[in-house]
Specification:
- By secondary structure, the chain is an all-alpha fold.
- The chain has one domain (2-192).
- It contains 9 helices and no strands.
- It has helices spanning 2-11, 18-29, 38-47, 52-76, 78-88, 95-115, 120-129, 134-159, 163-192.
- It is globular and about 40 Å long.
Length: 194
């Protein structure tokens, strides 16, 4: 089933509706859909590298907006919709840990999750369940999701289609580097404010 969904997502890259499809898939992935929008983002950016940043922005806006749906699911419909989604991804046992991370630093938890391969919907639904402020969710989502999608779009814009293999191979390392920079930035800001 996942392979069929993946093929369906990739099929949009050849469509005249590819850009709206990218928005909708990014929106849905932030709240319930299993296929990350990166696959369509890369296909579109590789087919038109001069529009790679535009596609990354569309993906970011769709993802951040979809995060609000995830929040609503967690806030108002957790038992009916949120819990089955969390159980579907096999992370129900980790859900309390997400709540603990939110108590420590919700902004950092959301921003880091937005950049990594962790299913982002878990964090948007949890934000609703644990009643994280909507401005925190949106701002942290913009940081994490824009960082992720603009990195992909920017690399394709700079290096063209040949960078795809590099992104596929080293995405986890790039994610770790981004997280280290993000946390380092927070520490520097905190140290400067003392």
């Amino acid at each position: 089933m996942i392979r069929r969904l993946y093929d369906w997502v990739m099929g949009w890259s050849e469509s005249p509706y590819a850009t709206p499809a990218l928005f909708v898939i990014a929106f849905a992935e932030s709240s319930f859909f299993p296929i990350p929008p990166d696959v369509l983002l890369m296909a579109l950016a590789i087919s038109a590298p001069h529009r790679a940043i535009f596609y990354a922005v569309v993906c970011t806006v769709g993802s951040v907006t979809g995060g609000l749906l995830g929040y609503a699911i967690g806030y108002s419909f957790y038992e009916v919709a949120g819990k089955p989604i969390i159980e579907l991804y096999g992370v129900a046992d980790k859900f309390a840990l997400v709540g603990e991370k939110y108590q420590e630093n919700a902004f950092a938890a959301i921003a880091i999750a937005g950049f990594t391969p962790i299913p982002y919907k878990v964090f948007t639904i949890a934000a609703g369940v644990f009643q994280i402020s909507v401005p925190t969710l949106v701002t942290a989502s913009v940081v994490g999701r824009a960082g992720r999608f603009l990195l992909v779009g920017g690399l394709i814009r700079l290096f063209g289609p040949s960078i795809k293999a590099f992104i596929d191979r080293y995405f986890n390392i790039l994610s770790i580097a981004f997280v280290v920079l993000l946390v380092g930035g927070f520490l520097v800001v905190r140290w400067l404010s003392l």
